[in-house]
Design goal:
mainly alpha; MFS_trans_sf; transmembrane; elongated; membrane; 67% helix; transmembrane helix
Length: 138
């Protein structure tokens, strides 16, 4: 359930996707709470809880945008518009519901096929490495 959490090219089944969601939800909540607490201490206002809450929400938005972008890049899905639309949608959901909602589309992207693997197994002679053409020996 919690295997290959840092491998963004890995195609997850439903159980592994739930494990990914839980693990990254906990990570974002911890990062948001830590950064919100630090900013709340630095500002030292009476309303530091609200400031910490806002900072935590910003961390959730940025995290979901970064994770969805990295997953699309790693899986080579950037040429598919319907997946690209999920990047700002994950940020929008994170704006309204934090990591709880923002990770929904990120988790969905982890269940998609890796386009690099599809090219490699389809019989084409294209190399899945991005720099293969540059460093190809003549």
């Amino acid at each position: 359930m919690f295997k290959n959490l840092t491998d963004f090219t890995y195609k997850r089944n439903r159980k592994e996707a739930i494990g990914f969601y839980i693990a990254y939800f906990i990570l974002i909540v911890l990062l948001g709470g830590l950064s919100g607490g630090i900013v709340g201490l630095i500002i030292n206002q009476q309303d530091s809880y609200a400031v910490g809450f806002r900072v935590g929400n910003i961390v959730a938005i940025i995290s979901t945008l970064v994770f969805s972008s990295v997953i699309l890049k790693q899986k080579n899905l950037t040429n598919n518009f319907k997946y690209i639309v999920l990047i700002p949608l994950s940020g929008l959901l994170a704006y309204f519901g934090g990591a709880l909602l923002g990770l929904i589309f990120v988790t969905y992207l982890t269940t998609r096929d890796n386009q690099v693997n599809l090219v490699a197994t389809s019989g084409k002679t294209e190399s899945p490495q991005p720099f293969a053409k540059i460093f190809k020996s003549s």
